[in-house]
Design goal:
Length: about 200
């Protein structure tokens, strides 16, 4: 009996491993294909006026994209921070899932930024459970964009889910511009990701 359970568990683990590997290979293939479109270096030509880049980043990926936008557009920048410092653990994923289901969003460190002086405001953050990370919900609930041009962006492992739809439904009084999303990829794609950012900004 014990042997049978052990063999079943082993088979399930092998199947799980194979499925994870197939998923990983598929995502890698998709990233390669998408970023091949951005192998050419493009000069930055956008003229966006006075720009503010607002972002939330827990593990640094969104910060990296936000920094590149900031440098290119010569923007001011504002990092959204939660009052609680989130600690990484497997339980954190389950907690966030529950909080998203119950619309419980974390309190933020204030003051929040004044968006009034800006022509264009970028707002970005990670995808959590196929939607916006909870601190972005907290943030958007507190800001009136008063008709400003707001450009959303996200970073994610591989699936942005309904980030844009949820962003658009939660951003107050904004003219939402062209969204861009960035999968997490290895350093071999740094140039292509940069070119993708330049291309996006030039076409806003
Ligand atoms: C709680 C949680 C849920 C996540 N859910 C998704 C998801 O649904 N889809 C996805 O592609 N990546 C998901 N990720 C991965 C993050 O979106 C990705 O690593 C992102 O680039 C992290 O951004 P940051 O480093 O700026 O915090 C999740 C990460 C966390 C912590």
């Amino acid at each position: 009996m014990f042997k049978k359970i052990l063999i079943t568990l082993l088979i399930l683990a092998v199947i799980g491993g194979i499925m994870a590997l197939i998923h990983h290979l598929r995502v890698a293939h998709r990233n390669k294909k998408e970023l091949a479109n951005f192998s050419q270096e493009t000069p930055y030509t956008a003229q966006l006026g006075k720009v503010l880049v607002i972002y939330y980043s827990w593990t640094g990926h969104t910060q990296d994209i936000a920094n590149q936008i900031t440098t290119l557009t010569k923007a001011d920048t504002y990092r959204i921070q939660t009052q609680e410092e989130f600690k990484s653990s497997p339980a954190f994923y389950a907690r966030i899932k529950k909080e998203l289901n119950n619309k419980i969003y974390p309190p933020l460190i204030e003051p929040l930024p004044d968006v009034n002086p800006y022509d264009v405001v970028f707002v970005g953050g990670p995808v959590w459970w196929y939607t916006m990370a909870t601190p972005l919900y907290s943030f958007l609930g507190k800001i009136d964009f008063k008709g400003k041009r707001v450009i959303p962006f996200s970073t994610q492992g591989s699936n942005p889910g309904t980030f844009l739809k949820d962003f658009t439904a939660n951003v107050n009084n904004a003219q939402v511009g062209t969204y861009a999303n960035f999968n997490n990829v290895g350093p071999e794609y740094n140039k292509a990701v940069h070119n993708k950012i330049v291309h996006w900004l030039n076409n806003l």
